[in-house]
Amino acid sequence: MQVLLIDDHALFRAGLSLLFQRMDPEIQVVEANSLEDALGQNVVDTNPFDLILLDLTLQGMNGLDGLLPLQKKFVNVPVVVVTGSAEPDAMNEARAKGARGYLVKTTAAQAMVQALRSVLQGDSHFPDDLSLAAVNVKLTPRQQEVLELLCLGKVNKEIASILGMSDHTVQTHLKMIFRATGVHTRTEAVLAARRLGIC
After folding, report:
1. Does 55 share its domain with 89?
2. Are 117 and 154 found together in one domain?
3. pLDDT tens-digit map of 146-174
4. What is the pTM of this model?
5. Domain containing 152 — which CATH number?
6. What phi and psi, each to the nearest 5 degrees, are found at residue 102?
7. Contact 78, 49 (CB under 8 A)
């Protein structure tokens, strides 16, 4: 099974690739950082992919403008729009233009996996209430500081030194951050922080 992931943020592409590996280790993710890159894929037939994920806010363009060219090149391959903004108008436009799903980037990892599985099985995914699709993440100011330093690539010992706390306290904060953002690893936490605008 192959998935084409079109997003101009390398960190988000890496995070979604991890999610697909969790879904099924045999899923292969082909990454593209622009619509041009995606359309330039050298493919033998019109259906090389089982699913296409398209970022709504690609650099220099509205991702929805890419729906038609993608549908023409990759016939009958379902396209799911992925966005950092829960705008009902954008979701309705995506549905009208033929997208098979709409995902907000702040959706919890488990819910995102379920939505993608649903689309892969032939269903569609458009949240009835976008406010329910986005995780209501609440972090304490201290947890935000820990997450910001994590985004800078700091290890636990460095974070502890900078913030004047013990390694154990840093680990406790990280556990709470993981729980609040619905992730399991440091890489996924950094990805969640980017989605939330923390780093």
Report:
1. yes
2. no
3. 998 998 889 999 999 999 999 999 999 99
4. 0.63
5. 1.10.10.10
6. -145, 120
7. no
